[in-house]
Amino acid sequence: MSSITADQLAAPAVNQTASDIGPLEQQHLQYANYRAVAGGTEVTKTHWHIATANALGWGFDGMDGVIFALVSPMVIKEFSLTLPEYRSGMQIALFVGIAGLYFWPWLADRFGRRTLLAVNIALFSLLMPVAALSPTFAVFVIARSLLFFALNGEWSLGSMLVAETWPARLRGRVITITRSAWCLGATLAGAITGLVAANYGWRVAVMVPGVIALLAIYIRSTCPESPYWVRAQDRKRHISETLARGGTVSADDSAWFGKAKSVGIRQVFMPDVLPATLVALFVACASTCIYGTVGAWMPHGRCLPGPVSPKPGTRRSFPAGFWRICASTRTRCESRTR
Fold this sequence. Notes:
- Helix 3 (45-70) runs antiparallel to helix 11 (215-222).
- With 338 residues, the chain is mainly α.
- Helix content is 70%, strand content 0%.
- It starts with 22 loop residues before the first helix and ends with a helix.
- The chain has a domain at 32-227: MFS general substrate transporter like domains (Growth Hormone, Chain: A).
């Protein structure tokens, strides 16, 4: 069996013989794209396919979130809502989305990364037309909740696949670069809103990103399964069969198996990883507050009467400029609802 451990991630075992390779990995080694990422530290075309797929997923994420924020005045007007009613519906969707942060990684530990990432992206892409065709605000909130649920899975699944296939020396850089594609998706959302929503309505604009469902086919055909996950499954099977026969395993295998067979949230609070968990928690909370303010709540100021920005030339001129950009985009959208 492979000697890979949890803290070694996808690092391939050195000098493996045929007897060291588990049955699941033997199946995957039949495919060239898996072999390209399973051994050595050389970056191959398959690595770039994986990074591209993750970046496209993040780009769609940005496109989805920003489109709904920009068309919110049109949604509010069409369903005859007050701003508190709309915000309450979005809060429900956000809370449902939190479940996706736990559900998708849990499922990925049992069924693999690649297939679930393809299912995840296809799911939230196909749900966009459902949200666009919502006859009532209640249906809209349900569709938006399912979209958040799927979107939150993409954050973890895509990054897991990159982290477990790319060489360790490049892993962090690649994940950072691919996540930055969110900004490109958000920029494209602005263009879609200004051109499509202003001329054809918010429902058509929301349906446009649904074409990204084709990305699921791309992922399925070009991206291999994570070697780390494959080897972990073989290791668990080997240890389980040994124990079932009454055999003994090493202390390292015993400790690893105890964690692997019952993955729980408590693992991230163990003493050896607690500092990293706290730092990640702080960064995640800060970024969520920023995103929630800029992407979800602040643009709704266009729905309220009164001035939206201070005069230019003050220290707050940058926020003022931001508000004017939002205002110019939304003015075109709102003209469709009058």
